[in-house]
Amino acid sequence: MKLHHDLHSHSTASDGTLTPEELVEEALDGGVDVLALTDHDTTAGIGAAARAADGQDIRLIPGVEISVSWNAYTIHVLGLNIDIRDERLQRGLQGLREFREWRAQEIARRLEKAGIQGALTGARAHARGSIVGRTHFARFLVEQGYARSLREVFKRYLVKKRPGYVPGEWATLEQAVTWIRGAGGLAVIAHPARYRLSATRLRALLEEFKSCGGLGLEVVSGSHSRDDITAMSSVARRLELLASCGSDYHGPENPWVRLGRLANVPDGCRPVWESTQWRAASAR
Ligand code: AMP
Ligand code: MN
Ligand code: MN
Ligand code: MN
To answer: What pTM was computed for the model?
Structure first.
């Protein structure tokens, strides 16, 4: 039987709106057989998700989505099937979260200069005790009527050249891949079509990623169009990267696809879960 894999999702441990338990429930409802929880720069939700999946018809893959600065770009690298007890990985993620905390204060300071009061308190209320990310600011700003949608609020306030923008100072590509591999996991470049890289730049990114030991490309993503999927599947084949597939689910009210509604990995690509590395990591 063909299993339905969704290897990219978020919970309230980062910027998702469902708790890890609710997320597992939703994935079961959507017919997902194998779900990876990949919160931004944290594995805090994995324990609860694994307990919720225990004894149910679903397998929970421990994962993380690591923020990386590569040249002028922020790139997201997924670590799948990681051992969350790995100390070097956890120290690395801790450093990224410390940057996130500083950045949250800085974003609020800049928004205040632009005339928006109380953004840090507002964003913290949405984060409910987790680290504050841009999505939490976006939810606060929409709630306050600064824009109608998350997409619009990002465009007006939270991206380059906008009042609440603070440049990222994330991990290097090599650090992210090294942490993931050190924790026994597989590194995958998330939603490659989202970065709007030229073919040459994308190739440079992927060559460097491979030389660090990166293995996979998220060919199928909730944020990819059909054309993106076709383009990325040929990139994966040409560069001999394994193909991954994930919704990037953030909760029922977000624009990405529903859990369990993803396209299949195109023929001719090798799915990550059919690799020897995946089997070795899962057998741990
Ligand atoms: P951060 O890692 O805190 O800088 O925030 C990045 C997150 O913001 C992504 O993982 C998405 O969840 C969200 N995001 C980024 N751009 C947009 C957008 N245009 N519309 C909605 N959400 C976005
Ligand atoms: Mn997110
Ligand atoms: Mn991402
Ligand atoms: Mn994501």
So the answer is: 0.98
